[in-house]
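User: Please predict the structure of the protein below. I'd like the answer in C-alpha cell form so I can feed it into my own downstream comparison script.

Assistant: Understood. Taking the following sequence of 126 residues as input:
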Amino acid sequence: MSNGQRILIVEDDVTTARVVASHLCQLYTVCIATCGLDALQLLEQQPDLLLLDLGLPDMSGLELLRRIKTQSAMGTLPILVMSADGEPAKIAEVLAAGAMDYLVKPLSAEVLTGSVQRALDAPRRA
C-alpha cells in the first residue's frame, strides 16, 4: 500500500521503467515518463522524488537535471540519477549539477529502495 509519496521515474526504456516501478509501487505512488518533455509536464504534479535516467531521446538527463535545479519551484526536488555509465567523471558531473545520488544500473531492489527512502527522508536543501 502506498504511503502517499509520489515518485516520477524518467526512463526511456519501458522495460527498465516497469521493473523500477514494480519495486517501488508497493510503497509509493509511481508515475513514468519516457522522455524529458513528458517529465517536465509531469513535474507540474509536484512529485516528492525524481528518478532520472541520463539517456533520454529528446534531451539528456543531465540537461533535464540542470533545468529542474534552476527553476525555483522545483529546485529542492530530490533527484536520483540512474545510469549504466559508472565513470567517476560522469558521476562527479551529475552530483555537481545537483543530483542527490548516482545509481549505477543494473540496480538491485535493495539498493533502489534504500536510496529512494534515504532521499525522501533527507531534509530538502535550496
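That's the full C-alpha cell string. The chain has a mean pLDDT of 93.
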